[in-house]
Structure formats: structure tokens, C-alpha cells
Amino acid sequence: MMAESLNKRIAHVESDFALRKGYVYEEVSSQLLKEVETVYKEKGKLTDEVLSALQCVFQASLLPALDLVDKRSVSQVICPAGRSLYQVVGSSGTPYTCFTSSVYCSCPAYRYSVLLKEEHMMCKHVLAIKLSEAIGCVKILEVSNQDIANMIQRIE
Ligand SMILES: [Zn+2]
């Protein structure tokens, strides 16, 4: 009986900690992206200090994401009805569809690393969108309502 309630207690503390860790991570990453925006506006580039902070938080996703930013791979797709989503052309040339509010991406890394293994908070494509937004280099792609409906249908 004692052991059972202790196990329950441990499970509760663990899940509570995981929740808080996710929350802290989200806070830290959004603060950091705000700083990227400020520093880029002031200096026209990212300082070493900001880059190493980004490296700490986003680790292995950072360099591939910066590469996508450099290549201007990020577009915001908008339609007259006001719906919008993002499209990121991956390093192999494949376009992926993403939603930043849910950090959803149609790439395999999202499914395996973000959803299943919870190793990363977001894939490199979603990180590339957030970085591109912070430094103001997102391309705008205007399409028809039907086009955007088709893109959404393809991921569902
Ligand atoms: Zn992705």
C-alpha cells in the first residue's frame, strides 16, 4: 500500500516536472526570440552572445535552421479569406507545411523527434520560421482560398 502511493506520488511529481519543464522551455525560447529581434534591429546581425544562447536552447536544430533562414526558405502563405500557414522549403528541396501556433510541421522529424520522442520542442523548419520572423525575412506568398484549402487537406 505504501509503495503504491509512493509510486503514484513519484509519477505525479514526474509529470508535474515534465509539464513545468515544457513551460519553462517555451518561456525561455520566446524570450530569446524576442532578443534575436531586438539585437538584429539594432546591429543588423546576430551577436556571438545571442548565437551561443540560441545554441544552448535549440542545440542541434540551430545550424540547419539558420541555413534555411540564409537561403530565404521560409514563406508565409496567405489567402483572401484570411487563412494563413507557413511553407518551408527543406534542404532537399521538399516544401513542408507548418503552423507556428502548434509547432506542427509536415516533415518526418516532427513526427518522430517532436511528437514521439519529445527530444526537441520544434523541428528545424518551425525554428527557421521563428528566426525568420524575428529578423524580418519571411516571404509573403499570396494564393487563392482553394490553394490554401488544398494545402491544408493534404496534411489532414
Ligand atoms: Zn519540420
Automatic annotation (TrEMBL):
<feature type="domain" description="SWIM-type">
    <location>
        <begin position="96"/>
        <end position="134"/>
    </location>
</feature>
<dbReference type="InterPro" id="IPR007527">
    <property type="entry name" value="Znf_SWIM"/>
</dbReference>
<keyword id="KW-0479">Metal-binding</keyword>
<keyword id="KW-0862">Zinc</keyword>
<keyword id="KW-0863">Zinc-finger</keyword>
<protein>
    <recommendedName>
        <fullName>SWIM-type domain-containing protein</fullName>
    </recommendedName>
</protein>
<dbReference type="GO" id="GO:0008270">
    <property type="term" value="F:zinc ion binding"/>
</dbReference>
